[in-house]
Amino acid sequence: MEIRQLYYVLEVAKCNSFSKAANAQFITQPAISQQISALEEELQVKLFKRDTHSVVLTKEGEKFCAYAKDVAESIDRLMAAFHQSTTKDKTVIKVGVFPFYKAAGLTSIINSFFAANHNVIGSIKVEENYRAYEKLETGELNFAIIKSRLENIQKSWVKYEVLCSENLNVLISRKNPYAQRKVIELSELGQFSLLTGDQDSHFYNEMRELYEKNHIDFNVAFLNTGEVDMMLDMVKDNIGISLVTDSVGRAYENEEIAAIPIEPKQEILTFLAYPRKRRLSGAYLAFKNHVIDAHRK
């Protein structure tokens, strides 16, 4: 049992509606239904009578709500005792970010918002694009900051705000003679072993598509380079190259690793994504505007 499930049940009971409760809790209706169903399964009881016209508490549901209200009030008293805002006063914003987000400068942007808004709780998780989409759909994430080529943005139910446009670079060991080059031609990428993501990840599929479209051998040396330190060590030791955007390349370039631009330029966009049907207001709208404004400075 999770604390959030108590609040979901109390909200549905108050609204007599799953959809209205979902809107009030800033999650999707399938997500709140899934959470309450999981709770009912755990407790081995039905908390609500559901039909096409109404949602009402069962006897067990009434009993559950009586105890849940006591728990919620106890949590609020605990928070108040330590001079914190109560749980009902705090908004939780759940954000998914791409791997290497720190190198792209996102940490300071996100942290500055939560530092300035003490009544907002932040939850940040590193997610590759496919998982981020899944969690946006279920309500496990409110926003996702993702990187993608424009032609691979195909989710019609997602609203995309473009944050920045960058080009691909080759992250390569300075032991490799190509590290002395000013640019590396796209057609030359087949000469290098590639460090990439898991075989079912968006990054893997996007890079494979880029290679195949340009008739380049897709020579993968290692999968799952979401582990930043491992990836950098492998690049440094000349085991393979990694393809990164301008900002990430600048962050990781040093006396052992070079970041070389690819020609012709290969555009990668960074997006702030969220469900199109969600009408943002309050802290959610403020967060969206903060992230967009920070990228325009």
From TrEMBL:
Extract the SUPFAM superfamilies matched here.
Answer: Periplasmic binding protein-like II, Winged helix' DNA-binding domain
The identity of this protein, by name, is LysR family transcriptional regulator
Keyword annotations for this protein?
DNA-binding, Transcription, Transcription regulation
Reply yes or no: does the keyword Membrane apply: no
For whether the record's keyword set contains Transcription regulation, the answer is yes
Which InterPro entries does the annotation name? HTH-type_LysR_regulators, LysR_HTH_N, LysR_subst-bd, WH-like_DNA-bd_sf, WH_DNA-bd_sf
Belongs to which family? Answer: Belongs to the LysR transcriptional regulatory family.
What are its GO cellular component terms? Answer: cytosol
Record domain HTH lysR-type: where: 1-58
Q: Taxonomy-wise, where does this protein's organism fall, top ranks first?
A: Bacteria, Bacillati, Bacillota, Clostridia, Peptostreptococcales
Pfam families tied to this protein: HTH_1, LysR_substrate
Extract the GO molecular function terms from the UniProt entry: DNA binding; DNA-binding transcription factor activity
Q: Which organism is it from?
A: Emergencia timonensis
| Gene3D superfamilies tied to this protein | 3.40.190.290, Winged helix-like DNA-binding domain superfamily/Winged helix DNA-binding domain
